[in-house]
Amino acid sequence: MTVQQDLQKAVASAQSSLGTYSVFAESTQDQSAKQMFKDMSKDMQRHIDVLNNRLKYISDNNDMNQPLNQ
């Protein structure tokens, strides 16, 4: 598996967790738990953003993705 594929799997996993935390936040009546899950959702979104930025960097700087000089 390539680094790019590993990062894509990590993004998918993080997106799944983000969705789960969001559902938990909406489902609970406990205000402290609601805030905790909202905070976890925000943290997970930051993780997703970092992973996506790294994916973009790898894609933009991978020699295999560059046009051939003619």
From TrEMBL:
Pfam families: DUF1657. InterPro entries: DUF1657, Ferritin-like, Ferritin-like_SF. Signal peptide: none annotated. It comes from the Bacteria. This is Ferritin-related protein.
